[in-house]
Fold these 3 entries.
Entry 1:
Amino acid sequence: MPSTTDRKLTLIGGGGVRTPLVTFGVNDAAQALGARELVLWDPDADRLAIMAALGRAIVRAEGGDLIVREATSIEDAVEGASFVMNSIRVGGIAGRAADERIAIQHGFPGQETTGPAGAAMALRTVPIAIEQARLVERHAPDAWIVNFTNPAGLITQAIANHTGAKIVGICDTPTELFHNIAHALGATLADIECDYVGLNHLGWVRGIRLHGEDVFDRVLADDAMLDKLYSAPVFDKAMIRALRLIPTEYLFFYYERRRALANQHRHGSSRGTEVEALNVSLIETLRDRLGANDGPGAIAAYAAYLNRRSGSYMKLEAEAGSAFDPEATFHIDPFRVASGYHRIAIDVMSALTGAKPATIVVNTRNRGALPDLPDSDIVETSSTITADSIVPLPIDRLPDPALGLVHGIKAYERAAIEAALTGERPTARKALLIHPAIGEWDPTGAMLHDLLDPTCQHC
């Protein structure tokens, strides 16, 4: 990537609720990124205008020089960009809520990236993500696509398989777990080294070193430490010790499917439904505050939204709690937290410019790093990132408890991508049959009809 101090960065899906965080991150790291402007594009012009205005208020509050503007078209957004971040949600948050509700009605936990709802999201998103990546190839051939779009591993795989675009997928889940491990040990992230293996939303820590000393057994043996690793009590400690693996929280929807579903039934809702309500309230508040020229008030409202959303994470599925419970909130500065999508994205892009080389867990081609999978498979693993280069670090073979799940999900991804591109319903049913969190043929027909038939999408 050529050295420049005048880079254009683009965010496709700029009307989304992550956009102000990304804007803050780009502005904060503008020097390392060489960023002149952040260009936002979204098919929802109203949402786009609100998020762009909030982004400009954030830049003013922080004293930055970053130009934040709305693109007139996706081609305008992409043309000449150095980085193209994509964070799209086909069907919007209402689509997520409907998908999760339908999954629950058919007897499966409702979760946006795993199980039936995750499959529906993938089937809708793959063709659009590939089309947008091809636009990047044409209009910004040197650009890196930084994929936020969920299900992140599958979407990154689809783009890598069907375009020549340079792509990396990011997720804050592994790094968040690393931070929690460091906190449990009374240490900082720089003090520890975690041996992480897996796929996006399907990963495990299988080794921990503190100042070079192996402390994995110490962590496994300590109930208080294990309690500090998750935002809610998602896993039985006896299970973690039996596996000798510390799972990321999304394994809850594989290891504790019945508990997740029972809690969703008890609550009578899903996370997606609650987030939809939070988002509707946020947009109304931002429209009012920004319309009154109250940038600081809009920023404060957005920060409060982030704290309630993050503070209630996994509470519903693990405990039948709610995002609207009084205690379900944080009281922190969400812009300056040590982890989060915006932090990972900025660290990855800063490393790819050559300004700040780093080792980061990302979703990238395997290229021999994990012996159990083909070189072309997208895996989530620690990678050395330098100027215009991502090289996954070699890792040991998958442990037996992870082996079947990882191979099952990669087989599911291949079938789901094929189904998304061909539109063949039997292939989509096969994908759900293969999925380790579904694994039945009979319910897939009616369930896919409800998930994918436009007349039923928001029923």
Entry 2:
Amino acid sequence: MRRYIRVMAQGIFYKAIPKHAEGLLLTTQLSRAVYNFWRMTWIRSECEHVRGIRDRFRDSIRPGQPLPKAYDRALGALELLVVNGDPQLGEDLLHMERNPAAPVDQKLLYDQDPLEWCLTQLQGRPDVQTNYDHAVMFSFLEAHLAKSNAKDNARIDELLFQELSDLASCHEILVSIRLHRPQNEACDLDELLESETEMSRIAWKTWKPDAQLSLDKKDISKLGADFSDSFHQATTPVGKKNTVWLKNQKLMRTALENFWDGLKKSCALALGQSGLMAGEISFCTEIISATTNPDYKALVEGEERAVMEAVKKDRGTTAGPAQKEWGSSGTEELTTAISKKKNKTRPAEAETNSKGNVEGIAALKIDTPKSAADTTKTIDWDNFVHAMVDMGFSARNGGGSAVVFENQNGDGKSAGGRIIFHKPHPVPKVDPIMLQSWGRRMSKWFGWQKELFVPEP
């Protein structure tokens, strides 16, 4: 969370808002991320619905003939969801207008600030023929960032790059639908919203005219202000892990848990007002319910036990002789030469588990000791990519900052396992917090542990 706040606070938007609105902005950003997750799960459910209809009418889908009505309707509904599914949750909580002195003429904007011109064009609706195709704009953006200076590149931060990756994913889905042959007929949104068949599915329940999916501004404002005071503005626990450190850590964790619980209640209320059933609300809010997960509680209890055991051990340690001479330790000081050469990594073992989703895979070992260097150093993105290639993966661009790593077997064909990481921007370095997160994912899906990688001799 602290890393997310730090990344968000780097933007001009954050610096331009008044102090009392910082907590509201943080809550708005997080609720938007939650909605984006919901939207992707709803798109997935609609894709599964399309696949089910296709399987039923597979023998009736023939070149030169109209699509079966049910299949045509399912494709049209999916297309409308992708085109019209812009985030709504918390959209009206904050409002900022463009600087009147900045150029608004598109030709002038293209000449003076091509990056902003491109980002402006990417906001155009894909079903308007006079707008630029998003694929063209993605290519323009990639070419511009490749030749622009570091200051211009830094204007697109990590969070904006993730938004662009989501947009690229939706564009790819939309292109796949519109290239489908035989092609489906365009579906009318108002007509679809009057259909009981579509309105029975979770993806469309929030689209009802009387079901505006939005959070209560008053509740969100208070939640954000409280969270800013108790977590963002509070002092991070530092120093040795003792009883004082543990007390401060509990305060921070309580503030974080209260925030997620409050956001969960607000989201559940908004979803309920949109017509979702209790089971559907529980499904949607699961993504922000980690604090109630038994595994999470076990992690917290394990951390507290480890700290208390270390405190007891320190108390039981016999004190050594008093030091009488300042600067003298009585033992020879040890020095370590630090090499400037960057070490590449290669697999220590040839045999790896590369199955993407295997039942019964071992949980991540959280008690593996980490040195101070492990938790503070960054690694170059290129070195990370090379390590993945050494593990038998190929890398390809997935749109925006997303890079898809696919496991390859001996003949170059996909072996079934794949994982997606976002390339850091504007500086191509993976910070330690992000690296630990990636390590957990690779341990979960591939069973990898730190010991699998060793420095190249």
Entry 3:
Amino acid sequence: MQRVTMMDVAKLAQVSPSTVSLYLRKPAAVSAAAGQEIARAISTLGYVPNLVAGGLAAASSKVVSIIVPSIRNAFFAETVSTLQSELAAEGLQVLLGHSEYGEDQEEALVRTALSWAPAAVVLTGLSHSAETRKLLQASGVPVVEMWELGGKPIDMAVGFSHPHVGASAARHLLSKGRRAIVFLGARMQEDHRAEKRASGFAETARMGDVLSYEIINHPGAATVEAGSLLLTRALERIPNLDGIACSNDLIALGVLFECQRRGITVPDDIAVVGFGDLDFSASCIPSLTTIRPSGDLIGREVARLILNSIQGERPEGSARIIDTGHVLIERRST
């Protein structure tokens, strides 16, 4: 099969190839009449722009590489969706990869992304292999690390402090008079952000008026089932348990289900705090107190930094780091 070219589109639309090129980059810069003819020709011929060829001419493609820990994790969906909408409005396309929380896999994805001469690279978190950091620093490509602050970014960063999130959860439980509290997490040996939330929780609990506090980790994925298993372990280790903070809302939902199975009343017997404010959090029974990280705001700010960088207005100094903060949303579970 022969590939349809820009020349074919220009010939059918009876315009110059440069006009077609301008239309593909900035449709509003072409007259309405010419735009209609070009759009009709593209539809008739089934033309698909060759982004790689365009990238070779311009030293970068129209692709932005976004790497998240897992596409099965709902927490990143809102951010990626917002990013895609904001970038698409400016003619940029998203290349999505997931590392499954592995630094080696992330490094492989970064190598692949750089081979496409991306317009920018977006990573999740600040923890990467030394080789990944070296590759990105040498590339000259705009890099935005998202969903975490607190370390030295490769280039730019948008996110929030995870220890502060854990501290907020602990303070909320303490404010409700809970004195035997626990942080339940999963895969914290790989999920460094969840581990940092746990450390912030522990530090605040240690300084508070508590009878006991613990951090309990499930080695597998952070699922509803993991929440059930973690509550069972927590009750075995802390019989007088009266407050729980969870590394995400899925684990918290599993805790709520297991409490119902055991006849434990929430919040009278045990108060529960989640993280993420997922769709079910406001409608489950009881509704879940949780901490919202503003994933949509993160997406918009990442897109803004990328677009500014592409337009030659790369931020400098403190403008390279954006703190989107977090909000504790109190509901019936506490």
